Amino acid sequence: MELRNKANRIRLFSFNTPQMRAFHFSWFAFHLCFFGWFGIAPLMAVVREDLALTQTQIGNTIIASVLITVIVRLAIGVLCDKIGPRKAYSGLLLLGSLPVMSIGLADSFETFLLARLAIGAIGAAFVITQYHTTMMFAPNVVGTANATSAGWGNLGGGTTQILMPLIFSGLLILGVSETLGWRLAMVVPGVVLFITGIAYYRFTQDAPDGNFDELRERGELAEANGEHGAGRSFLAAAKDIRVWALFLVYAACFGVELTINNIAAIYFFDHFDLTLATAGMIAGLFGLMNLFARTLGGVFSDLFARQGGLKGRVRWLFIALLCEGIALIGFSQMHVLSYAIGIMLVFSLFVQMAEGATYGVVPFINKQAIGAVAGIVGAGGNVGAVAAAFLFRAEAISYQQGLFYLGLAVLVLASCALLVRFSPEVEAEEAQAYREALGEESGAGALSLH
Question: Is 227 buried (19+), middle (13-18) or exposed (0-12) by CB count in 10 A?
Answer without folding.
Answer: exposed
